[in-house]
Amino acid sequence: MELSPNAEFKSQAPAPKVSLRALTGKVMGLKRSLLQIFAVAVVLELFAVLAPLFNQMVVDDVLTSGDRDLLSVLVIGFGLLLVVQTAVGLARSWMVMVLGQTLSLQWMGNVFAHLVRLPVDFLEKRHLGDITSRFGAVSAIQKTLTTAAIEAVLDGLMAVAALVMMLIYAPTLCAVTVTAVAAYGLLRWVAYRPFRDAAAERLVVAAKENTHFLETLRAITPLKLFGREEERRARWQNLIVDVQNRDVRTAKMSIGFTTANTFIFGLENLLVLWLGAKLIMTGQPVQAGQTLVNLIPETAQQGASTLEAQLYAPSRTAGFVKPGQVVWLRYAAYPYQKFGMAEGEVQTISQTPIAAQDLPVGQGQALLTAAQANEPLYRVSVKLKKQAITTYGNTQLLKAGMALDADVMQYRRTVWEWVFEPIFATSSFFKELGGRRSFAHSE
After folding, report:
1. Is 129 exposed, middle or buried (0-12, 13-18, 19+ CB in 10 A)?
2. What mean pLDDT comes out for the span 104-130?
3. CA 251 to chain centre
4. Which SS3 state, helix, strand or coil, does residue 298 take?
C-alpha cells in the first residue's frame, strides 16, 4: 500500500513542551514550603535509620550481659526519640496539608484565569469533558510535586548511601544489587512509553464518556420529550465499555510489569542471601567463647612490632602483683634449662576478673585445677625486655601466641622470718628485697 499526501495535507508541528512554571503560574511561598517539607522529611528518614539500633543494642548488649540498667536507659532514650519522631511526623503532615491547600488554591486559580483568557475557537474545538479532565489533572500534578517528588529524592539519596556502604563492605553483593537495579531500570524504560500512551488514551476516552454524561444531564428535558433515553443510554454504555477496555489493557500491562519486577528483585534477594551465606559460612557451628580470629601485627615476624606477655593470675595471688615488679619468663618452646629465662616487667593488672570459661578453648582448663575451676583470673600485662632469645648462638624472634610460665619477683625474706610470720605478722623489720610467687598462664 502506497500513501501520498493530497493538496490539503499539512504537516503538524510537534506538541510544544510546557514548563512547570508556565503550567502553575506564579505561586507564592512554593520554594520555601518545599524546602521546609524536605528538611522535615530528612529528619524522619534519620529516625527511620536509628530505629533498628534499638533491637541491635538489646540483642547484642543487653541480652548478652543481662544489664537491666542498660535496658532501662535504652527504653527511655528510644522512647524520647519516638516522641520526637511523632512530633516531627505530625509537623510534616500539617505542613503538607497547608502547602497542598495553598498550592491548590493558587494553582487552580491561575489555571482557571488562563482558561477564561483562551480564545473562543480553542473552547469550541474541544468538548466539555476534555476540558474538565484537563482541569482536574491539576490535583494529580500538585500531589506529585508536594509528596511523591520529595519522597523520591529522599529514597534516592538513601539508596545511594546504602549502595556505597554495600560497595565498601561487600563488592560482590553490591554487583548483584546493581545488576538487579539496572534490569529494573531497563524494564521501566521499556514500559514507560506504553504506559504513557495508555494513560493518554484513557484520558481521551474518559473525557468522551464524561462529555456524553454531562450533555445528557443538560439536555434531559428534550430527550424525554422525544423519547431518546434508550439511545443515549446505549451510546453512554458503549463509551464506558471503551474506558473499561482501556483499563483492562492497562491492567494487563501492569500485571506483566509487576510480575517481572517481583521476579527480578526476588531473584536478587535469593542471590544476595546465597552469596552472603557462602561468604560467612565456615562449614561448622561457632560455639560461645570460641576464638574466631587472631590479629597479629604485620611487622611482628620481622621484629619491628613489640610483643608483650599476657599472664593470668588466680585471685588468691593477684593481690600481691603490682606494676613495676620484675618477671622471669620460661618459654615452652625454649626449655629454660638450656636457654635460660627471659626478663620482663609488670605493666598493668586488670581491674575486673575473667572466668576461665571465657578464655580461648584449652587455656582456661590449663590454668586451673578441677578444684579451682570457678576461681576468677586477672589479666597481667608484662613488657618484655627482649623480643628474641638466643639459642645455640642464633637469635630467634619471639612469635605471637607462644605459651610460657612466669615467676613474679616479690618480697625476699629470711627463713626465720618466714617461719615466724604468723607471730610477727605486724613486724616492721621485714626486709623488702624480693621473693618469688609462681603463676600459671599463657601468652
Report:
1. buried
2. 78
3. 34
4. coil
- Identity of residue 327: V
- Using CA atoms, how far apart are residues 130 and 151, in angstroms rounded to an integer? 31
> Check: CATH 2.40.30.170 for 308-412?
yes
Residue that wins the pLDDT comparison between 299 and 183: 183
Sign of CA dihedral 49, 55, 60, 61: positive
Say whether pLDDT at 129 is over 70.
yes
Distance of CA 277 to the CA centre of its chain: 18
176 vs 402, residue with greater confidence: 176
Q: What pLDDT, on the 0 to 100 scale, is given for residue 433?
A: 41
Helix (H) or strand (E) holding 383: strand 377-384
Is the CB of residue 114 less than 8 Å from the CB of residue 123?
no
Vertex 432: Cα angle to 430 and 435 (nearest 5): 105
List Cα–Cα distances, 32 to 29, 39, 95, 108, 146, in angstroms.
5, 11, 11, 20, 12
Q: DSSP string covering 265-297, please? A: HHHHHHHHHHHHHHHH--SSPPPTT--------
Q: List the beta bridge partners of residue 330.
A: 405
For range 268-276, the mean pLDDT: 87
The whole-number pLDDT of residue 267 equals 92
User: The whole model's pTM is what?
Assistant: 0.48
Q: Is the pLDDT of residue 271 over 80?
A: yes
Q: For residue 371, what pLDDT is reported?
A: 43
Are 203 and 180 in contact, with CB atoms under 8 Å apart? no
Q: Domain 20-169: state its class.
A: mainly alpha
pLDDT of residue 432: 45
